[in-house]
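Quick illustration, no need to memorize.
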Amino acid sequence: MRKRYTAADLERFLGEVKATGETARVIAERLGVTPSTAYLWLKAEKAPAEKARSPRFARVVRQAEKPRGVLVVQVASVTIHVEAGFDAELLRNVVEALGGQA
């Protein structure tokens, strides 16, 4: 069965690659990530922002206290509450500005 990785796994992997300078394979093995996934993450990280049309570091978070129709998105350490009828282009620009590469 295929393993599913979280956004936190991705962030930790990329952080270690940048901080240590070790090869992707060494860091992937240490973190329990398959080498092929690690290289795909690196490739996506290096891709021009113009090609990426969806956030890479965004998480949808379920929160019971929010009314229906509200979407909660986390980008890095920022939480965005999106209500019905939002401007998709504006949200994309905000996520990109926060480092999510929308």
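Residues 7-46 form one domain.
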